[in-house]
Design a protein that fits this description.
Shape: globular
Distance between the termini: 20 Å
Radius of gyration: 12 Å
Strand content: 25-35%
Largest sheet: 5 strands, mixed
Order of helices and strands: EHHEEEE
Oligomer: single chain
Number of helices: 2
Length: 89
């Protein structure tokens, strides 16, 4: 698996949240949506391609980062309509 350090997020205009994932991540993993968003603004951040779950239509990524309060967070994401969509935290 190759480390992605050149994933272009410059065209990203924010986040797209599915209501089901909001509650699932909060209840199962005690992770708030704001914590997920924070890791994209903090360093270090590691972004890996998720080749197993990617398709021709949609690329998926694994993201590992740290929230503003120092909590380590791992995400599965995709980019849809210029927004980061968190699939799993």
């Amino acid at each position: 698996m190759k480390l992605v350090i050149d994933l272009d997020l410059s065209g990203v205009e924010g986040f797209n949240w599915d209501k089901g994932n909001l509650n699932k991540n909060r209840l199962k993993h005690n992770v708030e949506p704001t914590e997920c968003e924070e890791i994209f603004f903090n360093k270090p951040i590691i972004i890996l391609p998720d080749e197993i779950h990617s398709t021709n239509r949609e690329k998926r990524y694994r993201v590992i980062g740290v929230s503003t309060n120092g909590r380590k967070i791992a995400l599965a994401i995709t980019i849809r309509n210029n927004k980061i969509r968190v699939i799993m935290a």
